[in-house]
Structures are given as structure tokens and as C-alpha cells.
Amino acid sequence: AFGSHTDGNQELLPCEVCGRRFAADVLERHGPICRKLFNKKRKPFNSLKQRLQGTDIPIVRKAPQSKPQPVRRSNWRQQHEDFINAIRSAKQCTLAIKEGRPLPPPPPPTINPDYIQCPYCMRRFNETAANRHINFCKDQSSRRVFDPAQTAAKLASRGQAKAQMHPKKEPTVTSAVGALLQNRALGAPNVAPTRPGELE
What we know:
The chain has 200 residues and is mainly alpha-helical. The protein is built from six helices and four strands. Keywords: Metal-binding, Repeat, Zinc, Zinc-finger.
């Protein structure tokens, strides 16, 4: 009905490329064209370039995407164990408070493997803070040598010097209390002081 080349009894054959069905003589013409179109790779349509074409506005190229940073291995197992230990410790403390027993010792601190240790002061920081701190600590250590034992000795010697300069004073008593104690020592110790309102 749509063309003289198609009869109701004529068999339609599918195209190997697009799968549409055609008569044998039409398929011979369609096949090479269909293969050519499907094999040709079309460039993606750039709407910005099309809009700016013919204007004085320069086309800015997209900046190349930075390489994705390597994903660190998650320490979820250690974090989970630390969390469980903290909960157990809290339960033991609550139970000890209810029963009136002394509190159990706190769980030992765990070292986060993601933290970076400063080689100068041995403290640990995350990556961003470590980059800032290590440069600062290196500069400080080059200015003055920091020795923990030496610093402790200096603090102890300062404490001793301060104690010698300001010895502890014995508590002073007022003159009235001193006189009362002296009278008791010299006078009759067995005589009890009279209270106001008592009959002599």
C-alpha cells in the first residue's frame, strides 16, 4: 500500500545493522548506507561553541580535571573496636557508681594510624595539621634545643629557689589569743573560764 515495490506476499528481511525490515531489493541499497552511518562517530554537540560562533567572545577551554586522589584504606575495624571498648568502659563506670565501688581505670589510649608523628616533639597530627606543625616545630627546634629532661631540671631548680626566697611562715595568732594562752600557762590551769550569766 505504501509503494509499488512491496507486495503483501513479498518477504521482508531485517537489516544487520539497525534491525529494521526491508524488501530484498531495498535492503541492498539500505545496507551500505546504514553501515556507513552507524560506523561514523559523531562528535558531541557543543552548544556553547555554537552560540558563541560569530561573536567576539573567546571560547574558554575547560581546565583539565585533576587526577583523583588515591583513596585511603579505611580503619573502620579499629575505630569500631575503640568504640566498643569505650562503651564497655562507660558501662563499668556506671555500674561501679551504682554499687559504690571505686571507678575502674580508663581504657588505654589508642594511636590513630592516620595521624602523622612530629619527629621533633613526638606529638601526632592529621595530615593537614602535620604539614603546618612540622615546619613550625622544625623552625622552633633550630632556634633553641629542647631537652625534656633539662627543662624538668630547670623547673625543679626554680621551685627550690622560690621556696628558699619565700619560706613558709608559721601561722600567727592574735595578741588576745596569745595573752589568753600565756595566762593559762602561768595561772591556775584547773580553773575553767566563766561563761556570761553564770553565777560566781
